[in-house]
Fold each of these.
Amino acid sequence: MKNSRIRNIRKELLSDNWYTLNKFTFEYRKEDGTWETQQREAYDRGNGAAILLYNKKKRTVVLTRQFRMPTYVNGNEDGMMIEVCAGLLDGDHPEDCIRKEVEEETGYQIHDVQKVYETYMSPGSVTEILYLFIGAYEDRMKVGEGGGAEHETENIEVLEVSFDGALGMMRSGEIKDAKTMMLLQYALISGLLD
Ligand SMILES: Nc1nc2c(ncn2[C@@H]2O[C@H](COP(=O)(O)OP(=O)(O)O[C@H]3O[C@H](CO)[C@@H](O)[C@H](O)[C@@H]3O)[C@@H](O)[C@H]2O)c(=O)[nH]1
Ligand SMILES: [Mg+2]
């Protein structure tokens, strides 16, 4: 970390229940050269990976559906979110993480994955970098039911939908998850399923 615009960074732990919330107090050098003190909170839940599973022949994609409490308390009526498969790195390399997560959540054992973007999803408040992948799947790669890890009480539903159907769900607002929208738009722009 190097930035000549900031100095005297102090960190105060506000919460470390499931993940970590810190308050940072620091001095920031403005354009006119003077220093001002600022405070910013940063929620650290580690980094994550997400993947768009696609089948070019069938022109389909695999998505997941699960309850997301933070959306429920902010306007998402039933709290259910349709998303690409995703998970936290938990110390794994992003590629290893996403392969593991795909099998756990969707039941597919996939081979090749390709990273298309790295993104800070909420840079004003959350430290997380999300690694976005695409990966081809076929019916014969299905080795289990998916649904998520039992001990994590994830209750994930697996959806196989047509690519056009998924694009329609994005346009209608049924899909509201940013990483999912980014990957669907990537697929559209790059002609991935053409
Ligand atoms: N008890 C408890 N459990 C939690 C809490 N927060 C998360 N969990 C458990 O931890 C699991 C983490 O599952 P993953 O599949 O590894 O992560 P994810 O929640 O799907 O996260 C992915 O999507 C996020 C949202 O788009 C991304 O932010 C993240 O990077 C990742 O890609 C959750 O399903 C849930 O069971 C919490 O506050 N308390
Ligand atoms: Mg997940």
Amino acid sequence: MQILVTGKQMKQLDQSTIKQMGIPSLVLMERAAMAVFDCLKQHFPLKKTLVVCGSGNNGADGVAVARLLHLAGYPVDLYLAGNHTSFTEEMHIQWQAAKNYQVSIVNNCRFSEYTTIVDALFGVGLSRELSGKYQALAEKINASGIPVLAVDIPSGIHAGTGQVMGTAIRATETVTFAYRKLGISLYPGSVYAGHIQVKDVGIYGASEGVFSLDNKDVSWLPARDPAGNKGTFGKILLIAGSRNMSGAAYFSSKAALLSGAGMVRILTDESNRIILQQQFPEAMLSVYEPSMTPDELSEIVRKAMDWADVVAVGPGLSTSKTAENLLQTVLTFRQSKPIVIDADALNLLAKRKDLQAQCDAACILTPHLGEMSRLAECTISDLKVHPQKFMDVFYNNCSCTLIMKDARTWIRTADGSFFLNLTGNDGMATAGSGDVLCGVVAGLLGQGMNPSKAAPFAVWLHGLAGDQAASAKGARSMKATDILSGLEAQLQKMDSQN
Ligand SMILES: NC(=O)C1=CN([C@@H]2O[C@H](COP(=O)(O)OP(=O)(O)OC[C@H]3O[C@@H](n4cnc5c(N)ncnc54)[C@H](OP(=O)(O)O)[C@@H]3O)[C@@H](O)[C@H]2O)[C@@H](O)CC1
Ligand SMILES: [K+]
């Protein structure tokens, strides 16, 4: 697991390393510059490099990089875009050292001369929009088409939100120091950053921030019991589908079984019986009929719930009165069973504050931004700009585990921890993809994972499955069926690693 930090958190970490741990700022900076230098040598054409610097410590990193290039015999020009009067202490020292070593300093950049540009204009200290000469320079760099290595973060990207502050430099690669910044993990910042490398420069100790799973977290996958039986691996009830709508029930239940659940039962409208039995014979079926009274319906749901260890409700359910009765029965009679609430069930829940109050940490809600805006009674742009704030506010009404789906999915666990998922691709914006995620969450819960782990792990795994699908079929053409195939392949790979 890695920790993603904001600019403010990173500055505190810098300061505590310098002041409390006693590592001089220039030592950290030299390590930062060496990491950039290594990346330049490995990945960039170094016939002639231009390093553009601001007046702060990001600029000072850049000056140190220019010195390292110069001393190693690579042609380099240094261009100071900032003002001498605003130099930090470190920048004064680096600038003097560059002059002592006779690094070439230019007053104009003739971009046609360069094969690589190092962007050391602003780092985590960016405090406002780029304007004037900085904006003009960023635009010229972007228009030049020359490969750019960004130092720490592309200049113009907000380190906490990923927003473009007026204009931002588009990098080919970003070497970021100590911890990956949240701003280059979110969109659009992550696109501006290009390929990202996180380099150890001797700054440690982050405990606050947003968590993100990585390959080491394969170990979270519940171990299989060689002596287990169908019951050991979880009985999952999917309350899904509606009149002549069977697809969502199919994708969610299949994903639950592929994720390792022992048994899956689909509770759906009678009209879906034949097609589901043909498509997915491994699933058990319980059906209800439109003519049933609420009491008859409730009886069927309760019986199926008695059988299940985990219930998932919502995929393809519709927002009919029958669907509302189903959801109400689930939340009223759930005892303490984990419940995944997805899709149409979330739209029903948005209208029923009384049902929201029945949710607890064992309930996992999986809204996309539209559903979340209805639940949290805010706009989609509120959620984009302040995702954590609105997820916190919603938790006060509905104390559940929350998966807020977007190009970068956020997870808020019931203890208030936040995760941001970095796997997946735009091909996953396809019909049935959300149903697959719902099934993966349920399947993992069924194998005994607690909701605080199952939610971030399922999203991560689902993203990896999507990445596998994109490499097999292409992001444009991949379908939910391909994500199911990706899921199988990813789990096989993870089991072989564990
Ligand atoms: N020892 C350490 O601390 C280490 C730090 N490291 C490096 O330091 C970087 C952080 O350095 P930093 O804090 O000096 O901030 P930085 O990003 O250079 O910019 C600040 C300057 O820009 C100015 N400014 C801001 N916005 C502006 C705008 N829109 N337009 C114009 N001006 C603007 C701002 O002015 P002010 O807001 O004060 O008016 C100030 O002068 C970090 O990303 C990493 O690269 C690494 O070497 C590891 C060790
Ligand atoms: K930068």
